[in-house]
Design brief:
This protein is α+β, with helices and mostly antiparallel strands. The chain contains eleven helices and 13 strands. The chain has two domains: 201 residues, Ribosomal Protein S5, domain 2, CATH 3.30.230; 172 residues, Alpha-Beta Plaits, CATH 3.30.70.890. A six-stranded mixed beta sheet has the order 5-4-6-3-1-13, with helices on both faces. A four-stranded antiparallel beta sheet has the order 10-11-9-12. A three-stranded antiparallel beta sheet has the order 2-7-8, with helices on both faces. 51% of the residues are buried. The structure holds 2-deoxy-2-fluoro-alpha-D-galactopyranose (GAF). The site of 2-deoxy-2-fluoro-alpha-D-galactopyranose (GAF) has 11 residues, from α5.
């Protein structure tokens, strides 16, 4: 991919880039819709990533070319307010904007972007672009910007520039993950613990099934879930649902006026607990034993948070029937990908079982691949 970014850079700008920066997509092992509730998440970085070839610009503006559509965009200091740069360019302009809002002198730059993170599959292709661009600009400009502070800035680009009301998980994963580890992130304090997650060493594999289910009403439904959580927290008199302890859940549910709010709260509170239990098991090297927690998380997303669709439920059921230790949808929901934890020797059989189940239901053929936890954003050369 660096070669593709290099070729794009050469064609668009002439000359050579000053360097290459990469940032991965992510899969979330467990902890869904907990980030904007100040809760806990446990993502890991994917081997699929975005590469940015970049150099200081000769003109006082920013230019970005993307191999995605072969398009090049440019904007300058005056033309970069939120809304000014649309579509994919907003991920680039949003990062420049967020850095400047935070008081950084952002170097004018020429960028060429290549990526193999599947688009629209719930694997954070947008966070990968934001994180790669941010890492490149921070290095090029020698900005005083500790790595731990970067995810919030990239999130600000996503929230205030792109206009998606997401939490901090995806950018944190793309920037802070470590190879061979999952990232246990407290989304309130932003403290992290890198949890060893050596799938291969244990003879295991993580199958990712891209269900290719069309995302339906995804933006509106996401915002709606977030609003419901905030309303429930307000009614319960806590800053965020993170502050409801699992032991206090029955009493909290009794105080809520309707069944929908009760279901949303039950998902978030139990999901935070499942993240902590998963971390405990991984700390003691018991990877296989996390399977039932993954599957319980899926049931909670399906029944209480109501963010799954037929295709993802079918993939989970088929993977479990074919012998997966656990399976769940990963990401924001309403389509996207399913993770299945399997013995490495059965990875192909599990993927084939899902493909068969999709054919039986008349769904679009899914794409499956296996992944190992990769590194977070860094300079390639
Ligand atoms: C999307 C969002 F971008 C994340 O912040 C997170 O809320 C996730 O959905 C659900 O866990 O990926």
């Amino acid at each position: 991919m660096a070669e593709r970014a290099f070729a794009g850079f050469r064609t668009e700008y002439g000359g050579d880039p000053a360097g290459y920066w990469v940032a991965p997509g992510r899969a979330n092992l467990i902890g869904e819709h907990t980030d904007y509730n100040d809760g806990f998440v446990l993502p890991f970085a994917l081997p699929q990533h975005t590469v940015v070839a970049a150099a200081a610009a000769r003109r006082p503006n920013w230019s970005a070319w993307s191999e995605m559509n072969g398009e090049r965009i440019s904007f300058d200091d005056a033309g970069m307010a939120p809304g000014a740069v649309p579509d994919w360019g907003a991920y680039v302009a949003g990062v420049v904007w967020a850095l400047r809002e935070a008081g950084h002198r952002v170097p004018h730059a020429e960028l060429a972007i290549a990526s193999d993170v599947p688009l629209g599959a719930g694997l954070s292709s947008s966070a990968a672009i934001e994180s790669a661009v941010l890492t490149a600009l921070a290095d090029l400009g020698d900005l005083d910007l500790p790595v731990d502070d970067r995810p919030r800035l990239a999130q600000r680009a996503e929230n205030e520039y792109v206009g998606a009301p997401t939490g901090v998980m995806d950018q944190s994963a793309s920037i802070r993950c470590r190879e061979g580890h999952a990232l246990f992130l407290d989304c309130r304090s932003l403290e992290v613990e890198h949890i060893p997650f050596d799938l291969a060493g244990d003879g295991l594999a993580m199958v990712v099934v891209d269900t290719r289910a069309e995302h339906r009403h995804v933006d509106g439904e996401y915002a709606d879930r977030r609003r419901a959580c905030e309303e429930a927290a307000r009614r319960l008199g806590v800053p965020a649902l993170r502050d409801i302890d699992a032991d206090d859940l029955p009493a909290a549910l009794d105080r809520l006026p309707d069944e929908v709010l009760r279901r949303r709260v039950r998902h978030v509170v139990t999901e935070n607990q499942r993240v902590r239990q998963t971390v405990e098991l991984l700390r003691s090297g018991r990877i296989r034993d996390i399977g039932p927690l993954l599957t319980a998380s899926h049931a909670s997303m399906r029944d209480d948070f109501e963010i799954t669709v037929d295709e993802v439920d079918t993939a989970v059921t088929a993977a479990l029937s074919a012998g997966a230790y656990g399976a769940r949808m990963t990401g924001g929901g309403f389509g996207g990908c399913v993770l299945a934890l399997v013995d490495a020797a059965f990875a192909d059989a599990v993927a084939a079982a899902v493909t068969g189940a999709f054919a039986d239901r008349g769904f679009t053929r899914p794409r499956s691949f296996t992944v190992l936890p990769g590194p977070g954003a860094h300079r390639l050369s």
